[in-house]
Write a structure and sequence with these properties.
This protein is mostly beta strands. It has 2 helices and 9 strands.
Length: 127
């Protein structure tokens, strides 16, 4: 008596292509301000990161850079490039970066759906 194995090749299921959730989107006001900040004789880009700081635990960190690090996510929108630090990707995923000016201040504001709690002043958050 012989045991014979029958190999059955399953038909490959069609691949479903799902749209990728944007890491970060920029409002028109943010695009205008970023363009003004990065235009100049030296090419530079703004990198968005997160630092452990503040009463709720995390705080956004914006800095200038001239090069992309190995695992940075590059966002290009309306002619402006922003880098997102690889350590901040999960915290920033799906956020909107806006630029807001009023009589007392002018600042970038992040509308982040991942925030579970933030401090009273709005400078730090927890995801």
């Amino acid at each position: 008596m012989s045991l014979a194995a029958k190999v059955v090749k399953a038909a490959a299921a069609p691949r479903i292509v799902r749209p990728r959730k944007a890491v970060l989107t920029l409002t028109p006001a943010a695009v205008t301000r970023l363009r003004a900040l990065t235009d100049g004789p030296e090419p530079k880009v703004v990198r968005v990161g997160i630092r452990t700081k503040g009463c709720s635990g995390q705080q956004y960190d914006l800095s200038y850079t001239t090069k992309k690090e190995k695992f940075d996510e590059e966002i290009k929108q309306d002619g402006v490039t922003v880098l997102v630090d690889n350590k901040a990707l999960l915290s920033v995923l799906g956020s909107e970066m806006d630029y807001v000016e009023d009589k007392l201040s002018a600042q970038f504001v992040f509308n982040n759906p991942n925030v579970k709690e933030s401090c009273g002043c709005g400078m730090s958050f927890m995801t």
